[in-house]
Amino acid sequence: MTKTRLEAFSDGMFAIILTVLVLELQVPHLENNSFAAFSAGLIQIAPKFFAFLFSFFIIAIFWINHHAILHHIQKVDTKLLWLNIGLLFFSCLFPFITAFVGDYILNPFVVALYPLNMALASVTINALWKYAYVDTDLAPNNLTAEEKQARMKRDRMALVMNLASVALAFV
Amino acid sequence: MTKTRLEAFSDGMFAIILTVLVLELQVPHLENNSFAAFSAGLIQIAPKFFAFLFSFFIIAIFWINHHAILHHIQKVDTKLLWLNIGLLFFSCLFPFITAFVGDYILNPFVVALYPLNMALASVTINALWKYAYVDTDLAPNNLTAEEKQARMKRDRMALVMNLASVALAFV
Amino acid sequence: MTKTRLEAFSDGMFAIILTVLVLELQVPHLENNSFAAFSAGLIQIAPKFFAFLFSFFIIAIFWINHHAILHHIQKVDTKLLWLNIGLLFFSCLFPFITAFVGDYILNPFVVALYPLNMALASVTINALWKYAYVDTDLAPNNLTAEEKQARMKRDRMALVMNLASVALAFV
Amino acid sequence: MTKTRLEAFSDGMFAIILTVLVLELQVPHLENNSFAAFSAGLIQIAPKFFAFLFSFFIIAIFWINHHAILHHIQKVDTKLLWLNIGLLFFSCLFPFITAFVGDYILNPFVVALYPLNMALASVTINALWKYAYVDTDLAPNNLTAEEKQARMKRDRMALVMNLASVALAFV
Q: What global pTM score does this model have?
């Protein structure tokens, strides 16, 4: 398994996940051809549309981070491969969870699934970074021990805030 | 982020968007095995089919333009990356809007969404070109200041005509 | 537009079209957990399944032919690009037509759409070959005039048989 | 047909198959915004979710094996090409069979389709390995005759266990 292959495969999946998101947008039923019916239709799909918009940019950010992390990786081993598959697994869940939240935007338990899945994807991508940059020499780099500690601390902080927003869903 | 990666990712998304378009074509219900029932079925899906045909070629043109623009780009920075993601976002909306127009071809407000989305995609791809070819040296080129002005003027004209066709939807 | 790019884009679309085919296979409704209900379910989806199986191999053959043709192509011009997009357009229609035939296997007009679409896709891929190998020097080759004539004759024969099978649908 | 092309095409299909799996996960209907309704919804989709989770990792493993096998392959001939298309065909069926099992988890005949399809995919990938590594010199390697025999024996054992689990579905 070369890095190029892993990147191409991950790129393919991120591209498909982004496109599949829009499949969840259903054409609304319009009563007639008036502007009132059109507006009502747009309002009806508004929660789904904003869930789509939000997820599109969240997944784009994961994709950008994924690339930044893989940039310095020289070798791929089995554990890195499975961490990557784990990240793709949680990324794959976004279209389903986005549709779920779009349908039940007022149910706090459903809404909480979203930051929960983001947290799981973040834990995986952070573990992937730590494995390649800190635990092994898969990604040769010039980062000092302090810089590595700082990044891991920042990742933990982001995770805490993410999990805090799970709680926010219930407010 | 290298240019090759960005191109491959964008190619992947354009390929998926083109294929997803056809998923909106639903098999019509036919009353019986007669030619009359078959014709009625074809007439029923005709608006969707022509919306699909039209979108297929519109997105193909965006894809060709995207390649022409990226051809001279040597470096990718964060702003270019996000302009590209913006273009992919509006491109992603085409299958949904195509299906919406196919269902409500007589509703002018729905029909107007189509040129509106095209205008948004055009603004984004023009901004991407201007950023790489005029504002920065990401795409080294031999274009004179006049040629650059001429292209930007042409892009603005195309945009005005595009927005004018939004008005046309109401005639 | 380089050949590599065109190939990658076409490969992407063929891969998606093959996978999208299976999305048309709907899980049948089973009355209970008996073998009789299971058999009835399988019989119910059998036409769709065989339409899927058939289309999978037809599209695979188009993909293999596409590669064989592109193998010697050195340059890509605008006309070749649009012939290729035309081929991808008809290829994109296969999942829809496969589902249509799977639903109305007894309607000869619906069934005739299948060889009709194959004929249109064949005309396009043959035109692409002729344009690159005979009309222009986009694909430098050692074929003699006789060999080129023989291939074009063979392509025409295949097309006639294809169109004859449109008539067969009505027998 | 070069190996690179075949790999890219197969990677594309595996990536799409993994993502298409999640499309089978339907948003459940929730009665109200209570935790009880949310739990009931999760329980309702639990069989589909675990079928999705299981299939995701099964297909990931096929993808990893596919890469390991193609790693030493130097040339691609027509038979190898069709063995590969056969493998992609059975891989394509996983999303459909996963949805079928998710809907009828209590029907042993439906459940038995899953290991049956796994067995067919395994037979194909093993035949692909044997063809490239043993029968021909498409994949030059240093494996001794004993090592090749050992692998083929292991593959047969795995297949027997796989088919045994078809029987297990009826227990």
A: 0.89
* Cβ atoms B73, B138 nearer than 8 A: yes
pLDDT digits (tens, 9 = 90+) for B107-164: 999 999 999 999 999 999 999 999 999 999 888 888 888 888 988 898 888 888 888 8
Tens-digit pLDDT profile for residues D78-131: 899 999 999 999 999 999 999 999 889 889 999 999 999 999 999 999 999 999
Tokens of D41: 């919804």
How far is C154 from chain B, CA to nearest CA, in Å? 30
Taking a C-beta distance cutoff of 8 angstroms, is the pair D25, D52 a contact? yes
Q: Which two tokens stand for residue C3?
A: 């050949």
User: Nearest CA of chain A to the CA of B119: how many Å?
Assistant: 18
Residue A95 and residue D18: Cβ atoms within 8 Å?
no
Give the CA-trace dihedral at B17, B21, B24, B25, to 10 degrees. Answer: -160
Contact A69, A125 (CB under 8 A): yes
- Rounded CA gap, A17 and A25, in Å? 14
Q: Tell me which chains share at least 3 CB pairs under 8 Å with chain D.
A: A, C
Whether A76 and A6 have beta carbons less than 8 Å apart is answered as yes
C127 pLDDT band, cuts 50/70/90, is very high
Q: Please check whether residue D60 is in contact with residue D18, taking contact to mean a CB–CB distance below 8 angstroms.
A: yes
The residue count of chain B comes to: 171
ipTM: 0.86
Q: Could you tell me if D8 and D78 are in contact, meaning their C-beta atoms sit under 8 angstroms apart?
A: no
Determine the Cα–Cα distance for residues B57 and B61; give it in Å rounded to an integer: 6
Contacts 24+ apart (CB under 8 A), A42-50: A47/A101, A47/A102, A47/A103, A47/A105, A48/A24, A48/A99, A48/A102, A48/A103, A49/A25
Number of neighbours of residue B167 by Cβ within 10 angstroms: 11
Which is it for the CA torsion C62, C68, C71, C74, positive or negative? negative
Give chain C's length: 171
Q: Which DSSP helix (H) or strand (E) runs through B13?
A: helix B3-23
Q: What is the pLDDT of residues C51-89, one digit of tens each?
A: 899 999 999 999 999 988 988 899 898 899 999 999 999
Q: Is there a contact between A8 and B9 if contact means CB atoms under 8 Å apart?
A: no
**For residue A26, what is the DSSP state?**
P
Half-sphere exposure of C84 (CA within 13 A, CB side): 28
B118: left (phi over 0), alpha (psi -120 to 50) or beta: alpha
SS (H, E, C) chain C: CCHHHHHHHHHHHHHHHHHHHHHCCCCCCCCCCCHHHHHHHHHHHHHHHHHHHHHHHHHHHHHHHHHHHHCCCCCCCHHHHHHHHHHHHHHHHHHHHHHHHHHCCCCHHHHHHHHHHHHHHHHHHHHHHHHHHHHCCCCCCCCCHHHHHHHHHHHHHHHHHHHHHHHHCCC
- Rounded to the nearest 10 degrees, the angle between the axes of helix C3-23 and helix B3-23 is 40
Query: What is the residue whose two structure tokens read 């494996």?
Result: D143
| CA distances (Å), origin A87, targets A62, A90, A112, A118, A146 | 9, 5, 19, 10, 26
Chain B residues in contact with A68 by the CB 8 A cut-off are 1
Task: With beta carbons under 8 A apart, name residues in chain C contacting B40.
Answer: none
Judge whether D26 and D98 are in contact, CB under 8 Å: no
Note whether C88 and C121 are within 8 A (CB). no
Taking the CB of residue C118, how many other CB atoms lie within 10 A of it?
Answer: 22
Residue whose structure tokens are 């291939």: C151
CA distance linking residue D171 with residue D169, whole number of Å: 6
